[in-house]
## 1
Amino acid sequence: MDERLWRVDVARREAHRAPVPESWHRLGGRGLIARILLDEVPATCDPLGPHNKLIWAPGLIVGHMVSSCDRISVGAKSPLTGGVKESNAGGTTGLQMVSLGIKALLLEGDLPAEGWSVLIVTRDGLRFESGDDLIGLGAYAAAERLRGRYGDKVALSLIGPAGEMALTAAGILNLDKDRVPSRINARGGMGAVMGVRRLKAIVVDGAGGEKPPLTDAALFKAGQKLYTQEVLAHPQSAIYRDYGTAGLAMMTYGFGALPTRGFSSGNFEGIDRISGEALRDRILARGGEGDTSHACMPGCVIRSSNCFAAVDGKMIVSPLEYETIGLVGSNLGIDDLDEIGRLNWEINDLGLDSIDTGAALGVAAQAGLMAFGDPAGAHALLDEIRRGTPLGRVLGCGAAVTGKVLGIRRVPVVKGQAMPAYDPRAIKGTGVTYATSPQGADHTCGLTIRAKVDHLDPKVQADLSRTAQINMAGYDTLGACIFGGFGFAKAPGAIRDMINGRYGWGVGEDFLQVLGFETLKLEQAFNRAAGFTPSDDRIPEWMTQEPLPPHNSVFDVSEADLDRVAGWS
Amino acid sequence: MDERLWRVDVARREAHRAPVPESWHRLGGRGLIARILLDEVPATCDPLGPHNKLIWAPGLIVGHMVSSCDRISVGAKSPLTGGVKESNAGGTTGLQMVSLGIKALLLEGDLPAEGWSVLIVTRDGLRFESGDDLIGLGAYAAAERLRGRYGDKVALSLIGPAGEMALTAAGILNLDKDRVPSRINARGGMGAVMGVRRLKAIVVDGAGGEKPPLTDAALFKAGQKLYTQEVLAHPQSAIYRDYGTAGLAMMTYGFGALPTRGFSSGNFEGIDRISGEALRDRILARGGEGDTSHACMPGCVIRSSNCFAAVDGKMIVSPLEYETIGLVGSNLGIDDLDEIGRLNWEINDLGLDSIDTGAALGVAAQAGLMAFGDPAGAHALLDEIRRGTPLGRVLGCGAAVTGKVLGIRRVPVVKGQAMPAYDPRAIKGTGVTYATSPQGADHTCGLTIRAKVDHLDPKVQADLSRTAQINMAGYDTLGACIFGGFGFAKAPGAIRDMINGRYGWGVGEDFLQVLGFETLKLEQAFNRAAGFTPSDDRIPEWMTQEPLPPHNSVFDVSEADLDRVAGWS
């Protein structure tokens, strides 16, 4: 099918398909979102007002079930950061959108005054149905009802109660290959931008759709094969297959960077009970619905995801990822994986970002609203969110607002967005990424933990972060998972071949970097137009002063380095 | 006494007097605060962290009981706006500080970890005593206890429970000439900056102090006389004497700019029950402790303040000002002056800014947390603040945070600070001031309501606001009340003569503008260093779209005009 922009006006319940502007053709995913925001969204607009647009954009390689390469990007001006935002997820939404010829789907126009909608996207076009009966339902129940109504083969993007309430830590959930709404465009409040347009869900019914055409199928397949071989051969892929991202817990602990009790230490005494090894042992011992290795997207050969079941064999949550273990586990002083898993399910069901929510609860614990190490206290706070109480709304707005309201200064955020589970005082290159990424604090924008450097040395971090940020912006534009990088790094020609095989553009081996560089420039331009300055590209003051045990290090990468990485100098 | 800087480290309970740097000599009040912030406070620092400084600075003419000219400025980097902040008040603090030779008093250094202090400032120096017994007391009770302890002649600057909780709409209260803590450095959260240093009060004991020396006493007196004559002769002075600022209610109503039910209309059907005439009639009819004309500072000949008593003759609150009537009255749909007065007393006792608090309650009413027109509902919300509940903390952080948490888009703020009682869609020159003042939305930075222009015409407002902003920055640096301008406008030579008579500087008739221009430049420089851009100098998006009855006007002064006034172009 021809690639089209699908433009949707929820207030008028109108939608149409339009041609793709020339300058948007060679972008997808994160890069395309930045381009659209720059071209169509006033940078200073109210993110929860009518001038913002919420954009779904599959990456450039999406559509052929290349392993780890079918991600869906969702973006808008962020109500959490006030800047450019792209958040990508696995699952089946990207694949089905591409099969219908969707280059990008845009929600735009006035905010509806009343009534909730569901948007159904099919080969024949778009239509609206009422979503009123779904309001108040958690994400899992809403997804189940939507599957009952629209069939088991559709893809879904939906919001939970947090998105309905326009809470700025709300995300958008997509179905994984087993139809669980667990693949989340979690970061930056995209669920709130969907909520103010009173759209509970998009149903993508790819029936009758087609794989996107290949200009040179042989070339594409050759690139795909090379890449897949390298992914499979990479030792790290096996580790992720066995331990999932949870394997990172022991690594960050070793670096003294595991967020513990409100980012007050980099070591947690309960590490052995929350590590990837502990998780794997528990899953294997229990059997039942548990699975140590699970693919979030069809065709993925890494399968870093998992299904975590209780002693009775029933699923607690799928997946349980390292960042959640860090923010909801050690950061809250909780060392029981079952409890962490149950909190994770609850956060997913609310439709929230587990990173910003975990960080917010850590701030609340500092303020005495729950005790560190008390899962019941954490559940009680999540229940406040579900009930939409004032405290619940505060927490659902994320860690930055929670700190402001509760008068807590020790808040781990950049540009209003909470830090993932790598304390920047002990893995300083990732701190540079947190500080300077146009997206706000986000490990997926340039994690440096695997680099062979002294992570405590402030002098060697800037270029490391810069390179990682360019590569990640490239992968996010291609639609590739962060772990696809294990393969692409060994086989840069694979990207060239797949892109040329699909589009015939004649790009070179450096296409990843070309895309990444362009994407970052576009994002920086949007943020500058929105009013960002070098003062926004900083780690919070308290982290430059308060030493982090066990290394007793502070974040001390120079501001000159930060300004250089962020493109100010 | 020689003018000195009094530097105070609360954490170490140390203080000392230091010489005044040469470049600070010719500034006072607001201008001096901007200069000190630029010189000593990192612009990007955490406003509630150790690098911020809280500064008391009397204006340049303070000390001789010139009518309306003994105001005390308090400033810091604002935790509400993130930018430069000066908030001035009447009362006796400025006068007594000057009599002790205080050019400026700075709170600086680390934040104390525990224990509350009272700082006592006398002719002999500074000392600390415990303030622990005062914690949790409302401002009225705390002031009474402090007067009991330190005598009836001292001046006080103190915080209420809101400041103790570091709520960002908290102010600092000073005693008026009748020793009521009703003269408030209200705006921008200065009370929170005092609260994080765990300082409940400053006691200024001017015993043994002296009036500041005059270089040419005859010249000073001549200037003072000329000014006082012009103030007394101005017809507006008589109106303020009789009706207080409440006289403005009918005027803004007439212009269709009276904030009504969450800034949804410029006309309020209850105007006749909340006007200056209604207030005067009620005060006169009741007698008792009521007084239609009251001086907030010794020596004031305008006496625009008032004492508002109930039917039993007992004081409800003193004063009841127009901005409170607008924000807590019509903005909340409340048309009973007694109820407005009782809410005002409560807000004062909490130590909050009545403008930001009234605006926050208006946002809460939009969210359904109280009904418009329900004083009991408003009291219940203020009680939440007193109890420090999560909702109370949200409200006490002001309208901007309240809107963010409650998901309300229609929030009347600029730079995070709430608008006073002049809707910028109907008095657009004041809207230009709100948008472009380095202080955030603040009528005292350049009110244009008395200019003989079409207040709806977007084309004629920029220069009007600019001139008013320069003049007001000058008055705030001299220590003169906004109403002193009635006299100075007719007798610009009076400023020249008083300054030359006091300091011998040989300034010209344009000294007011010289001071104002310099002050604004310093403030703009601080804000730029803090990360402000033209995008911060804007009226909220919704006010550029939602027409305001009865004129159905939107705020439509061009961004080019705003950028010019703000010094960007």
Note: Chain A touches chain B through 36 residues (CB under 8 Å).
## 2
Amino acid sequence: MSHENTPENGKDPLVIFTPSGRRGHFPVGTPVLTAARQLGVDLDSVCGGRGVCSKCQITPSYGEFPKHGVTVAEDALSDWNKVEQRYDDIRGLTKGRRLGCQAKVQGNIVIDVPPESQVHKQVVRKRAEVRDITLNPTLHLSYVEVEEPDMHKPSGDLERLIAALKLATGHDALEIDTHLLRPLQPLLRKGEWKVTAAIHTAHSGGTPRIVALWPGYFEGPIFGLAVDLGSTTIAGHLCNLSTGEVVASSGLMNPQIRFGEDLMSRVSYAMMNAGGDLEMTEAVRAGLNDLVDDIAKDAEIDKSQILDAVFVMNPVMHHLFLGIDPFELGQAPFALATSDALELAASDLGLDIAPGTRAYILPCIAGHVGADAAGVALSEAPNKSDDLALIVDVGTNAEILLGDKNGVLACSSPTGPAFEGAQISSGQRAAPGAIERVEIDPITKEPRFRVIGSELWSDDEGFDATIATTGITGICGSGIIEVIAEMRMAGLVDASGLIGSSEQTGTDRCFADGRTNSYRLWDGNEDQKAITVTNGDIRAIQMAKAALYSGARLLMDKRGVEDVDRVVLAGAFGAHISSKHAMVLGMIPDAPLDKVTSAGNAAGTGARIALLNRDARGEIEALVRQIEKIETAVEPRFQEHFVNASAMPNSSDPFPTLRSVVDLPDPSFNTGGGEDGTEGGRRRRRRRG
Amino acid sequence: MSHENTPENGKDPLVIFTPSGRRGHFPVGTPVLTAARQLGVDLDSVCGGRGVCSKCQITPSYGEFPKHGVTVAEDALSDWNKVEQRYDDIRGLTKGRRLGCQAKVQGNIVIDVPPESQVHKQVVRKRAEVRDITLNPTLHLSYVEVEEPDMHKPSGDLERLIAALKLATGHDALEIDTHLLRPLQPLLRKGEWKVTAAIHTAHSGGTPRIVALWPGYFEGPIFGLAVDLGSTTIAGHLCNLSTGEVVASSGLMNPQIRFGEDLMSRVSYAMMNAGGDLEMTEAVRAGLNDLVDDIAKDAEIDKSQILDAVFVMNPVMHHLFLGIDPFELGQAPFALATSDALELAASDLGLDIAPGTRAYILPCIAGHVGADAAGVALSEAPNKSDDLALIVDVGTNAEILLGDKNGVLACSSPTGPAFEGAQISSGQRAAPGAIERVEIDPITKEPRFRVIGSELWSDDEGFDATIATTGITGICGSGIIEVIAEMRMAGLVDASGLIGSSEQTGTDRCFADGRTNSYRLWDGNEDQKAITVTNGDIRAIQMAKAALYSGARLLMDKRGVEDVDRVVLAGAFGAHISSKHAMVLGMIPDAPLDKVTSAGNAAGTGARIALLNRDARGEIEALVRQIEKIETAVEPRFQEHFVNASAMPNSSDPFPTLRSVVDLPDPSFNTGGGEDGTEGGRRRRRRRG
């Protein structure tokens, strides 16, 4: 019994736990584990104190503790016992450690719970600006000994198992997954009535559920899968649910690509082909099972050890994965079939992992802002930010979040695939041979660049040798941003996006190319043709970045601000993009460059957080309900922002912070006609529309 | 607002509902449905008062009501309105009826709720001694209008559906079955945002669940299936869940019969053949789907309208149906894999009915006393009986319940298949041509009998013609009971079960047949051989009836009684058996003959009750937990009772009530040797065992 609130009586020893600082008086003979449980100290135990699991290891400290006001005698704990000796013989107990279930309190004692013995371990994240993840998965293992059947007290084996588990876990009620009814009896007998159960407790309530059973004591580990189901790439992380560690990662192309490169072409495929949506559902589920195979092989585990799975994805992938026709997402009002988080039988999703696994899908924020954006929100936690953060996840659609502790807004903006190298004359996916970095000398207008697969710049000695196998094949998304921004800074492109002629720019790298000019970035060689940037390429990027910026600007309007404190670039693209160049183009709002950071695959990280911490599921569900959703398509100011944002960086917003560190010349190459005039005309019509 | 507890103020009209007698004051203009809901009056409504479903029909009464102390004026309700007019035009409203949601209170009024408008209708049962069933299924229909999607307030169609249903039903939370995610969007649009949902609310708690959806207003009916899954026969009743009516019944042979006639031979089959249990699982599930096909065809409904299913069965069938190897049930301690009631996805049981259906399986009482016995207990409700009832369900195993309001005991007893005509030389299943009734003249020792398929006795004129097609093929279970009991009463068999010789009995119908005598019941003809009763037949019945009686006697011992007040014979066999003849054999304890009644297929009725009334599920679960289970195999007194019960009626219990109405001669045909001596010897050895 806990004496926590009784006055010190000079009789029962005082037990102090660190690092929690929790303390209480306990009768002599109380096991340390019992004391910890009664004080609510975070000390792990799978076997409930039977000396089987060794999860409850603790480190006693002896001597004077003026800070705690106690002196700990050498005999403050009972002697090392047989169970501990056996464990030490077989597995080796770290010096100074004891098993909390075996060591009994005999006097005042200070006990440290090392991180590995805590249930709610901290999983450290590398980036300074984000919080660590507290390990608290939906699954827990519990080892119990089940009463044997007795003719005089007839009850099912299951009912006696549940009774034992209720006692061990404190759950009031427990269900069992139907698939376990068959193996239950042989399994209990194989384990001689000792059994380890994996119990799934949904964060949203409901009866805890036995989802897996092992005969005898099963040490684990068990694993969970966090998946970012992208339109192009499916990326999965396999996590050890006892440590939070990522033990294997794998990625593959989304097999739906054969039905259409981008989302809208897949929606069209479903509209044009009866049963087309189901073909795509089948394809993505098959892809996921390939990923599961890969990742299990990588980690050298059996797929049946994967007992949890969390998914993030955009709304179209969400529907296709669930087996829902995405038809409604292709047209206003972009109605989602379901927007809330879902917890479904993994088998209903065709996933070949442990039967009984419940798959969790993060909520969608809106018809164009999916569970992937919710994953970003969970990872980046704008709702916990003191300063106002703009978070953009750049892909075919850009999902944009703006917020701080006072509230979060979200929208998506149809950037199109230009940022991924599509619609660009020399564009290509990020792959060896692609130009990814560019510098242009503002005086000579001569470029140098780096290519994926080489550490050298193109004007470094030995560069040619490093690219001998890949060649130089095109420009990837980040390369396109850089080259256009560099052209803008070198005065080769004006603010309206027109490339100057050779005469206007003073370099013959600019050359007439039809009715506009192009810039030759690389001259080519006998094997490969030259790589140029055409005015059409610049138009494509202008459209994309204007869409992105306008979305951000709309959220800023709604929030009533002209600036943001910081910008976070999420997504694989965001990880490679140069913040300076992005800002020169006016992709993102004006901000100090050191306040523009990359979050990597934040959506995938969000999935991982939801996998490792059940409370995070409730948090993101609550946050998504609170987020104010803006539908850009119907916002009257969107068009105005779009037109302003077509200029580089912007025809209305001044970008003073950027201009204080970057020189932006201001030529005008408009000769009053040609393609630009037409474009301008179109844009003016739009404005009136 | 309800004014139920406010004093009569002379302003708000008084509304009195019959038959409930509930009353309250309501402001002028209150719809009758609203008043009923606020008073907790049982008035149905699927559409929530939109004038769509017409379930809330009521009958207003006018004039003087001295009993209620009110006078009802002609204008006490608002005038017949357009909605009512339209309904009357299309469907016809019974004269004097109004729609409760349309008619508004204008003055004091007396309103009768006719039975069809009550949610909790009474489903009348024919037998006087049992209670009617109150209709209260797990499924309810709710018609709602769903908010259309709005870009400015993005939420999924599902979330808006759930919001509408929560409002209409008052449920705090609602889930949806996964299979509905796909059809949801087209269905909502087809119904123009009007939809009817079938909501399943488990009696055991948990979140109510949308299991089916129809576009627009779906009037029903929806159906449920109550199944008694016997070792030999599968019997199903299809019930209309709105009326409680049985709309179709069907039965078929359990296809598992090809793996073994009786349960233990099926357990053996599973033990001897790897995967044998799964073969049997597949067979019984296929049989169930055949039953579903038959019954749906019979009722002219679509299988997808079957939205609930309840099952009762013995433990071996229970396990085989669930896909559990019955191995453990074949040996002590007869451990059930699971004994509690189960609610499972019907699809997990391979049932081809409406997807999303939850199948309910009644709890098993013990390793030999299954969910079928629980069904009998639910139907016959010994726990609610004022007098002490003995309920026996006779089959290959007899399940026996003894109890009253003070408590219920249960056991099973291995009667073997003799009562079903097996192990009997001329035995056969109950089918046309089988002798089912027998009388033997105590003077002449001449028999007469009736045959299934003919209304005439064998000595009636024209008998031969009526049996011309079937012939006389054997003796069924009830016939065996009768002929042996008649032989006993006619002095042809002594109390120990020996048939007398021709000399001893004075009739040449008794004839030497090996080492014992037989009795010729029918002489045969050119086509069919004679039908005789051998001493072996009598031994088989003696063993069976001794097992049955000993089980009952054990329960009486436990209860500390020498007599029971009444005996209920359940099961198909129980329906055909003559209570007098059963008692002459000593199958059942001594009791007044009019206190021995037949309950028919009480197990199946129990399934039907659990189907129609969700609370009954909780009741039987509670009762099964309270029932005291006796394992006959390990009860020391079982052998003693068995030996005593081998005599007809009994060598220890005097059967005074029986003897007061039936003459039981007391010859002894034991000549000290032969087969009987051997048998006696064996029995004496048993007694010592």
Note: Chain A has a mean pLDDT of 92.
## 3
Amino acid sequence: MGKKNFVKAITSRDDDFAQWYTDVCRKAELMDYSDAKGFIIYRPYGYALWENMKNYLDGEFKKTGHENVYMPLVIPESLFMKEAEHVEGFAPETAIITIGGNEELQERLIIRPTSEVLFCNHYSKIIESHRDLPKKYNQWCSVVRWEKTTRPFLRGSEFLWQEGHTVHSNEQEAKKEALDILKIYENLGKEILAIPFITGLKTEKEKFAGAVDTYTIEALMHDNKALQSGTTHYLGTGFSKAFDIKFQDKDGKVKPVYQTSWGVSTRLIGAVIMVHGDDSGLVLPPRLAPVQVDIIPIMQHVEGVLEKAEEIKEKLQKLNIRVKLDETDKSPGWKFSESEMKGTPIRIELGPRDLKENKVVVVKRYNREKETISIDDIVDYIPKTLENIHQEMYNQALENVMKNTREAYDYETFKKIMNEKSGYVKMMWCGDDACETKIKEDTKATARCMPFDQTPIGEECPVCKRKAKHVVFYAKAY
Amino acid sequence: MGKKNFVKAITSRDDDFAQWYTDVCRKAELMDYSDAKGFIIYRPYGYALWENMKNYLDGEFKKTGHENVYMPLVIPESLFMKEAEHVEGFAPETAIITIGGNEELQERLIIRPTSEVLFCNHYSKIIESHRDLPKKYNQWCSVVRWEKTTRPFLRGSEFLWQEGHTVHSNEQEAKKEALDILKIYENLGKEILAIPFITGLKTEKEKFAGAVDTYTIEALMHDNKALQSGTTHYLGTGFSKAFDIKFQDKDGKVKPVYQTSWGVSTRLIGAVIMVHGDDSGLVLPPRLAPVQVDIIPIMQHVEGVLEKAEEIKEKLQKLNIRVKLDETDKSPGWKFSESEMKGTPIRIELGPRDLKENKVVVVKRYNREKETISIDDIVDYIPKTLENIHQEMYNQALENVMKNTREAYDYETFKKIMNEKSGYVKMMWCGDDACETKIKEDTKATARCMPFDQTPIGEECPVCKRKAKHVVFYAKAY
């Protein structure tokens, strides 16, 4: 478990993607398993990724007028039962406290699987007038959903997330909120994760239990399967009627509020691993990386090497670059492997010969490109290169999405693509659950979303031949 | 529950301190009760206080080489039972999950009341060599302790906190860690909360279940009772032996690690309320305040008033001052009351007459001092005044501590002070549990700490007349 296994090769991505994924999670020290099945330990390096995502999102939420709160961990069972669809969606996977302070509880307490009912109950008590609206609350917490099969970051009994819950005086404003947040999520992909998300509306079958509309961000993994990476929900007045959240409007009338909820979770860490990672381990986009530059001295006992390395480190730190100098007694090769496993965007190698020539070797993690540059140029070269790497990684991921997005005009072609290549398939749909179900049974693919660009690519649903109503992106998904 | 109750006066501090406290918690919109007894809702304003404390501490922890992690919410019962003293301390107040995914669990899961055992279990798996040490981990989370009587922020079934858990190769380094963190906590008081803490070592009776030494920060409330506001523990090798956390040292020998743990919680919000608050509500020190300056326009319909108010707001924002302009249709008097209830350090009043004279009225919340200053001076005056307020509030709190710290050389005097005045009483102690117990029975006061300055103030323990060993601060406490 210690450092000694570090350089041991991990499973190849193309041999066994699932095993590769788990290897990266463990060997890059992102997580560890705990003694409670399905509950993982977020180790410092994994948690730092979450913190960087969190800092970006929290800033964007606050800029747009959202406030953080903290609701209780537990929901009394009677409260949990108030909104029927919601209960149906979540009851089967709840964890329940039945004992507190050595006594059987009179009412059982559900560990929050999501907090709609807690927010609704609170809102019903604090909202009276249009003057109290909108309320735009968010919370950072963990939730518990009892899962039979779990995978680090992707599906677990406990995961970290943010959940936003907002209340508005009218439909239009609430719908806009759900879309505004979707944009923030999309920008997280563009600006921080270097992941291009496909966005759109979920079908009835795939939407959130209790939502009118669910919007989604979907990412394509290296194995060509899609990962639902975040959702925003326009809830209409379903919850506000169930929980009696009313307000007196300017016209003096008492009306139910319109609501949204939305969340992204540590599942995004899984997305980053599976979009960018390779056979040497994790590959991190620079803005997300806890360490952006690893400086690795060669023959560090030779006079001047460590001093120069330290000097470079300090110069880069002054530019607010997150840099680490590895002065441990491990071999350079070992340090290279560690740096690669952890996905540090840039590695700087510096040995006695380089020192003499006033040069360093710079290696980009994502494409292994090596360059020799003058030490004098480092302060210009590194920040620029980090920015370029971000853009190049985003472009590479985008190219991969485009290459693996196909259109199908007949169902046979659809099935063939899903069988042989997977990826996204764009196809028309009649809007009937039955066709969606048939597609899933035949191919395991599901409707990932109905994209905002609904320009038709055909007139009929290739499955049932009836009139088509929607453009849909299908994919096999996690 | 809405805005309409805002101006209603709250209970006076000196009439009923407990009721005053609850009134402030509710009326300043810091929290609300949830439907699960003992679990509170941290409303935006209350949560913002916690976020500001958290930002300061997180920065200090990281500067000193600590890393954040996240351990599971739950502890399998068998794991929980490993360290005997620890179990004895926490078992009576645990909440237990017995059902997951509609099935009775084979092993019950304890909701973490604190996470020593989770950290220890993890450390035992990842530590092998002196190269792996030290490990200095911290986590921000909530914990659950089943409490019979609860009070917002002070004692609840769930509270937010940070818990640090560190592992070292030697005793000296671990002991230093416990003291270094105590210093960070003390500085939080000095730099952010404007609270002077008394620090020192806990007695055997008062220390943490499983610790060798517990250090504490104690604050004195307006009612002259002490509040334990945070603790750091030197754990020695008790946990490492129970959990088998060993490392191979440089000399080749396998040894147990030395550990610490430490935490502060949302209880600190309670301290801020009870140290600084007054009969008009909360009083916040400027560095902690979510809003530092409230600008309240008078006769805001008069041309120019709102424009000038907006101009002042923007000028202050450019100085990174957290400022709010209240443009709502409430009356100025109402807005003053709200601003006072929420404890905003400075209020700026601006009406048509002021505008004509190019002046504003500035009111300091903590001492209600009013000044009229030229609008041209605002950008100089406000930042300077915020800094002064911080220092003045700290000094005022310190004076209160000094005024209410007395020395007792005989037990009758001790009892008299505790009965009549409360506050801290400094007295010598023989070191015997029996005397500590007698003091508690006689006066309800407990040993808050043995201060670092152990200059004796007498030769014998006034309770039993035997030889005195320690200087102790006693107080009635929350």
Note: Chain A touches chain B through 65 residues (CB under 8 Å).
